Every structure is written in C-alpha cells, then in structure tokens.
Amino acid sequence: MSSVEEQIREIEDELKNTPYNKATSKHIGRLKAKLAKIRDEAVARAMASAGGGEGYSVKKSGDATVVLVGFPSVGKSTLLNRLTGSDISETASYAFTTVSVIPGSMEHRGAKIQILDIPGLIAGAAMGKGRGKEVIAVVRSADLILVLVDVFNEQHTDVLLRELYDAGIRINRPKPDITIKKAGCGGIRLNTVGAVDLDIEEIRSILAENKIVNADVLIRDGVTQDDFIDAMIGNRVYVPAFIAVNKVDLVDEKTGAEIEKELVGRFGEPPIMVSAHSGYRIEDLKDAIFENLGFMRVYLKPVGGPADMDEPLIIRSPATVEDVCNRLHRDFADKFRYAKVWGNSAKHNAQRVGITHKLADGDVLTVVTRR
C-alpha cells in the first residue's frame, strides 16, 4: 500500500471512530478537509501523468455528450451499438475489449446525442489505477453519466459511485452557492443567507487546512461541511447521472425485481432494467437519457411562414427566449425586438413576449429582430 493510501486509510478510520456532535464538528471538518486535499493532489498527479493516449481526446459533438461508466464486461460496448444502431464498438465476452474511447451518435426525439463508450473502470481508478486517469478525465467533461452494472454485479454500483466521488465528480447535486474570496488581512469573515448550519469555527478549521487564514465567505442556504470543502478545493464538477442494469434477460423476473428494489432502497431512484443483447427496454433507456439531460424542443417559425415541425431546436431546460437567440446567432440577442410564442409557456397563441420569457418543451417560437 502506498504512503498516500495509508494516509487516506488512517484519516478515514479516525473519521469513522469520531462521533459527530457540536464539540467534534471542528475536528471532523479539519480531517475531512485534509482528506479531500490529499485525494485531490493524488488525482491531480494521476491526471498530469495520463499523457492522453490514443482515443482519450474526443471532440464533443451533437446536442450533449453521455458517457457510459461501468466495470469491465458489463456490456457497455453492446449497449453503445444498440443505442446508436451500429457496430462501431467492438464487443467480446472478455474484459477490457474497449481500450480507447469510442464515440457514437444517437438520434432521439429530435436530439443528436453523443454516446461515449470508455474502458471499464476498476477500483482505484480515481487514483490512476488501470486506465482510470484517462477515463476519469473523459467522464468529468460529460453532460450526463450513465452508470451501467449487470444483474450479476449490481453491488458494483457503490464502488463506481465512490470512484466518481473521489475524482471530484458530484452526481445529481446542484452546485452549492458558496463564495470564498481570499483577502490580505482581517481573518475569516462569514456572511450567510438563509438557514446555514456551519459556524465560523468549523469554517476557520477547514480553510486553515488549505492555508487560508484571511477570506470573505458568503454561504447561501443549507450547505454541509462536504459542500464547503468542495467549494474550497474549487475543481468539482456537477453532473446528472442515473443507473441502468444490463443483462436482465439472463435472470428470472423475480430476481430482476429484487435487484431493482435493492437499488431503489440504496439510491432512491429506480434503475432502468435493460438487455443490450436482446433490445429489451432500449427505447425506455433512450427516453431516460433525453429526460435526464433536461432537453427541451423548440420549433422555430419564421415571420409570415410555417413552423418547422420536423427539425426542432434542442436546448437544455430551463431556457429563455434569450437562450434560443444565443444558439441561433449572436446578433439575434443584440437586435432583439420581441418574440411570439405558441405552446405550454404561452397564455394564448401568438403571445408577444420579451427576451426573458421562459419557454416550455414543444413551444413554437418566432423571433423578430431589428434590421
């Protein structure tokens, strides 16, 4: 075991054996900050030595990018081929078939979605084991993570989520509203908005671990020690994710239902139960990808002409008229006069709206600009 792993294990053991209460919160905060710093430095070293081998630098394309994350041999390559309707990713019944990142394109409900099949993660990937360092770099740039396990190894879900967490990837969590501005003097000054449980002593202890002794701190609403440490480290990414369980055709219905119930109990959300080999529930999986990306379809209607109902503009929700203008051309926002909207966001058909109007999925939009 390396000295870094030994340090991490010692701190984790101390955290496990220290009961949390108001008297110990400052000490626990300092330990967590120290642990986060050691992990972050280890991941940074692994990333720096990655070298970006063949296939690991993938140009993003389409309306969004989805990365398939899983251990070797859970069926990621087969699933990519099924989702994209092609045989672009080699498949075989042994581990590590995929040795580089394989991009594919899926079209669904008007959206063009890039799907990336990456080499299987292994335990310790965040610290650079196996091909972990290159793989983690690709995952951090994703718009959505699809965590794939199979019916024989659903317990791998915990390990995969831990690897993502250790690599600074926060799934299904909004970025906490925390601002830390270093200062030249004056100590730590704390301002809070809303209900905040952290006190000034906990914050001082956490910041001191990162050698910050003078700073202005602003916290809005309920945040945890972990949230504050993430804000201090400053390189976390916040990505939506969901779980799919593959190879359900290889177990009976009762076993499949038990696995689904187990994962709901541990993670709160039901997984999508699929079979990449047979195609079972692949359309449901495509819908889940579309919905978890928060996509909206906006149909554009030129002034005096019919709306184009075949080719919607795909945009992430929530979206305003200004977001659409920026997607169309930078001049549209600068020269904007007004817009007309038909659909769920409008009070009536052809409602005249301003640039800040919030759109809904399926709206028809006309943008009128100054000449």
From TrEMBL:
<keyword id="KW-0547">Nucleotide-binding</keyword>
<dbReference type="InterPro" id="IPR005225">
    <property type="entry name" value="Small_GTP-bd"/>
</dbReference>
<dbReference type="GO" id="GO:0005525">
    <property type="term" value="F:GTP binding"/>
</dbReference>
<dbReference type="InterPro" id="IPR006073">
    <property type="entry name" value="GTP-bd"/>
</dbReference>
<dbReference type="Pfam" id="PF02824">
    <property type="entry name" value="TGS"/>
</dbReference>
<dbReference type="InterPro" id="IPR027417">
    <property type="entry name" value="P-loop_NTPase"/>
</dbReference>
<dbReference type="Pfam" id="PF01926">
    <property type="entry name" value="MMR_HSR1"/>
</dbReference>
<dbReference type="InterPro" id="IPR031662">
    <property type="entry name" value="GTP-binding_2"/>
</dbReference>
<dbReference type="InterPro" id="IPR031167">
    <property type="entry name" value="G_OBG"/>
</dbReference>
<dbReference type="InterPro" id="IPR012676">
    <property type="entry name" value="TGS-like"/>
</dbReference>
<dbReference type="InterPro" id="IPR004095">
    <property type="entry name" value="TGS"/>
</dbReference>
<dbReference type="Pfam" id="PF16897">
    <property type="entry name" value="MMR_HSR1_Xtn"/>
</dbReference>
<dbReference type="InterPro" id="IPR012675">
    <property type="entry name" value="Beta-grasp_dom_sf"/>
</dbReference>
<protein>
    <submittedName>
        <fullName>GTP-binding protein</fullName>
    </submittedName>
</protein>
<feature type="domain" description="OBG-type G">
    <location>
        <begin position="64"/>
        <end position="294"/>
    </location>
</feature>
<dbReference type="InterPro" id="IPR045001">
    <property type="entry name" value="DRG"/>
</dbReference>
<feature type="domain" description="TGS">
    <location>
        <begin position="294"/>
        <end position="369"/>
    </location>
</feature>
<keyword id="KW-0342">GTP-binding</keyword>
